[in-house]
Amino acid sequence: MPITVDLATENLRTGTTSPNTWTHGGAGSGVKGVIIMIMHGTSNTDHVTAVSYGGSALSELQRNTDSSTEPGAAEIWFLGSSVPQGSQTASYTPGATTDDIQAVCITLLSSVDLYSIDVDGVNDNVANPSVTLTGETHRYAMAFAALYSGQTAISSLTAGSNCTAVGTGELAGNFTAQAFRQTTSAKGDFTIAVTVSTDDVAYAAAYIAERHLDFIMTTETATLTESMPMDFTMGTITENLTTSEEYSNGPSTVFSEDLTTSEDFYDTFGLNYTDDLITSEVLSDAFSGVFSDNLTTSEVVDTDLDTPTALLTRADKGSILTYAEMDANWNYLNDNKMERSVTTTASSATLTPNSTQSDFHVTALATNATFAAPTGTPTDGQTFTIRIKDNGTSRTLDWDEAYREVGVTLPTATTISKYHYVGLVYNDADNCWDVIAIATET
Predict the structure, then answer these.
(1) How many structural domains is the chain composed of?
(2) Which terminal CB of the chain, N or C, has fewer other CB atoms within 10 Å?
(3) Residue 336 — φ and ψ, nearest 5°?
C-alpha cells in the first residue's frame, strides 16, 4: 500500500522558547510515521537535543551543515512505530539559542509501520542540491528533504521533478528554509532535488519505507552426506566381543559371529580391518585410543573428543572419515543443531541476540529497549526464538532493520508481566531475519 501524507504543519521560532511546541492535528487512526524537519541560520551549531510527538521521542536520521559565509543547518527526525493518533503536540528542545528556527511536522498514513531505508545530504555552497536515495523494488517509500539556503527569498527555491515544497519556508534575516517531499510514494530509487543558484546550503534527505514484505515461503530439505554413527565414547565393554555380542554402549550394532580375520568394520567405524582383532591392534583412528591387548572385559573405548567448529565431509577430506572424525561431527551437530541453547539477560536498553545460540531470553525488562541485529554468522534457514518479559511495567520495543516482518507485526511494547515470543528464520539471500511468528501469553 502506498505511503500518503496525512497533514503538514510548520512553526517558526524567533525567540528563546525551549522546548518549543505547536499543535499538529493528525488523523485519528492509520498514522504510522511522523517526520519533523528543523532548519536554522545564523550558526551551524547543533542546538536541538530532543524532538517528540505526543510525548513519544523521535530519532535523528540526518543532519547537514553549512560553515561558509552564512552558516546554517538542516536536520530530519523520525518516528515509525507506535505513533500517537489524533491531534498531538509537536516539540523540540533547542536550548537558549537566539537563532531563528523553522520546523515542519508531517504525519504519514500507511497500512504498516515505517522505517528509514536510506539517508544522505549536502554540505556547504552548491547549486541545485540533489541526492539519490536507494530504495527497493518490492516496497513503497517516500523521500523528504530539509533545506537551509543563503538565498533571501523563498521564491528562489524550486522543487525538483515529482517533488513538492512544504510550508512557507521563510526565516527572518538574509536566508531561507524550506521542506520538500516526494509528491507520490513509489518503489525503487528516488532523486529528491531543488533548483536554486549557488549559495550557502545545508541539505538533509531521508527515505521512509514500509517495514513489511510479501513473499512465498518455501521448504528445503537438507541431507546428511556422511554416515554418522551414534556417540559411544567412554563406553565400557563388559566381556569379550564374541558371537552375537551387542555393542550396547556404542552404535548398538549386533555382531553375528566372532570378530575374526577380514571382519569388515567399515560401516560401523569407517575402517576395514584385515586380520583378527588381537594383541596390540591399534585402533587409534577409530577410537582415539590404543589397545595393548585383546578387547576383553572392562576395556574402555575412547576418551573425550573435541567438538569441531564445522562439519567435516568426505568431500572435504578426500577419503573415508575415521570414526573419531564422525564422532566429532556428531558432537558438533548435538551441540549446535539439535540441542537448544539459550542466552539470557535480565534487562538492557540495547538487546543483542547471539545467533550461535538458538534462543534469546529477556527475563525482566526494566527499560524501553531496542533489539539490535543478531551477532554471529547464521546459515540460510536457521531458526531463532526471542522470548521477552518485562519487570511488571510495560516497556516500548524497537527493532533493527535486520528483522523483517512476514505476515506478522513485531511487538512495539510489552504487555505487563506476560511472555512474548518472536519466531525468526534467517534469509541468506536478503541478509535478514524473517519474522514469521508472534505470540503473547494470555
Answers:
(1) 3
(2) C
(3) -110, -20
